[in-house]
Amino acid sequence: MKKILVATHGRMASGIQSSIKILTGLQDQLAVIDAYVDNCDLQAEVQSFIEQTHGQPCIILTDIVGGSVAQAVSMLSANQKNVFLVSGVNLPIVLSLLINTEPLTAARIDQLISECQVQRVTSEVKVPSENMKHEDFFAS
């Protein structure tokens, strides 16, 4: 089983887990920490996750680069070659990591990150003319 943790400020992590459940049913393969919403000990939970990997590759995704959650994870995972830290988590990267079948390496993670970047999307609305055929309206 893949070792993936999403740790965020507030309930963003559990929201991602909920979306993963709806989209794939793989929510049990995703550990989450919703920091600062209850009496959870962020450092203890992160440390426990890392220990449970038993030196196997794992990835911890946080919400904000340089934020307090990312800082805590960074301190706890320092000098541990098996732990990959990614900040700026989004649903596409979590989905990609969960369905990835290749070994978890820095190069593979970087590739998935580049494929899952936020993108600006444009769209054009075609206004049908009287001479336009039905097939022409739906052609790209």
UniProtKB/TrEMBL annotation:
Keyword set, alphabetical order: Cytoplasm, Kinase, Phosphotransferase system, Sugar transport, Transferase, Transport
SUPFAM superfamilies, per the entry: PTS system fructose IIA component-like (SSF53062)
Domain PTS EIIA type-4 stretches: 1-125
Compartments (UniProt record): Cytoplasm
Keyword Kinase: yes
InterPro entries tied to this protein: Bacterial_PTS_sugar_comp, PTS_EIIA_man-typ, PTS_EIIA_man-typ_sf, PTS_IIA_man
Parts of the chain that traverse the membrane: none
Main location: cytoplasm
Name the UniProt record assigns to this protein: PTS sugar transporter subunit IIA
Organism: Lactiplantibacillus daoliensis
